[in-house]
């Protein structure tokens, strides 16, 4: 786990560290999204348009998913991701 610090200006602005910009492939003008899930905040790059993803996951043999199935899958993913982050943090705390 790597931790990056940044400062927020009086206008609520900050600079995203270069390593994060490179990892997210952010370019000037790209959008970012902040996702709140409980007491956790996630940062996502919004540098893809939905049109760029059209047909990416298309499988004519797979039945369509309901919105409930999709919501459940997203929730499960976020729970697993949250647990991985917690586990990584605990390992980091023990190693310092």
TrEMBL record:
Pfam families: MazE_antitoxin
Span of domain SpoVT-AbrB: 3-48
GO terms for MF: DNA binding
Membrane among keywords: no
Keywords attached to this entry: DNA-binding
InterPro entries registered for this protein in UniProt: SpoVT-AbrB_dom, SpoVT-AbrB_sf
Domain of life: Bacteria
Family matches, as NCBIfam families: lp_hng_hel_AbrB (TIGR01439)
Protein name: AbrB family looped-hinge helix DNA binding protein
Organism placement in taxonomy: Bacteria, Pseudomonadati, Pseudomonadota, Alphaproteobacteria, Hyphomicrobiales
